[in-house]
Design brief:
Distance between the termini: 49 Å
Largest sheet: 6 strands, antiparallel
Number of strands: 17
Strand content: 25-35%
Number of helices: 5
Radius of gyration: 19 Å
Structural class: alpha+beta
């Protein structure tokens, strides 16, 4: 039985079929799990020894209407999604950092039946996930002494430098920039969205992706949706300018 089939079977027995009623005619949990699996596939990073690191934290934005209907079951759904994603990652032989975490949130501006999945490598901090599920034990710790340190390859220091001189070192994996509590790199700028942009660092290159921000993301004065950064590139979010630096 596949991960998707097991997921569907567990949903059937949950809250006496309430999920079937909640999702009738709108977004279905299997579609969400499919999207989470695609996000894991899209954000793979190869570690030393040929191991593959994938995101362990998934934020599901539902439309306001769908979110209000789902509210009583959000925690249960998040738990099932986290368990199924952990099973999927284990079956692929991929590595995650710590637990698989799933959060279900209200996504303003999304039409009924639409949803958005964002994924990142989460290494700890101030977050209260609705569900966290242990990945298989052999997939707990992606870093070892022979691999990349958390800031990339040996001798490399990859960072962003703000216009006020502050330094933001980049870790392996995904870093979300924004002014909200869920951003890894929080910037106190009212022109920046709560989850504005994401930086994906695989040890070789850094890719900047705009997360549908209100005011957009500029690199060297050009609005971008996703771009690989080069040393010296100037990133503008709101009124904040960040310079991409690679030392070593």
């Amino acid at each position: 039985m596949s991960v998707l089939q097991r997921f569907e079977k567990r949903l059937e027995g949950l809250v006496e079929g309430a999920f079937a009623k909640v999702f009738k005619g709108v977004v279905h949990p299997v579609e969400i799990l499919n999207a989470m699996q695609r996000e894991a596939e899209a954000h793979k990073a190869i570690l030393a020894g040929g191991r593959t690191l994938v995101p362990n934290r998934y934020v599901i934005d539902l439309s306001p209407y769908d979110h209000s209907r789902l509210a009583p079951y959000a925690a249960a759904l998040a738990q099932e999604l986290a368990q199924s994603q952990a099973e999927f990652i284990g079956e692929q032989g991929w590595t995650v950092y710590g637990d698989v975490i799933v959060e279900v949130e209200r996504g303003e501006g999304l039409d009924t039946g639409m949803f958005r999945v964002t994924a990142e490598v989460y290494t700890g901090g101030d977050v209260a996930p609705q569900a966290a599920y242990d990945a298989p034990p052999s997939y707990q710790q992606p870093y070892d002494s022979g691999g990349y340190a958390q800031r990339g390859g040996p001798g490399r220091n990859v960072r962003l430098v703000a216009n006020d001189g502050r330094n933001y070192p980049l870790s392996m994996g995904s870093t979300v920039i924004g002014r909200g509590d869920q951003a890894n790199m929080r910037l106190p700028d009212v022109g920046i969205s709560r989850r504005h942009a994401r930086l994906d660092y695989d040890g070789n290159q850094v890719v900047l992706t705009d997360l549908g921000s209100t005011n957009g993301t500029l690199v060297n004065g050009q609005r971008v949706s996703a771009v690989a950064l080069n040393p010296g590139d100037m990133i503008q979010l709101g009124t904040t300018t960040l310079t991409f630096r690679v030392d070593g």
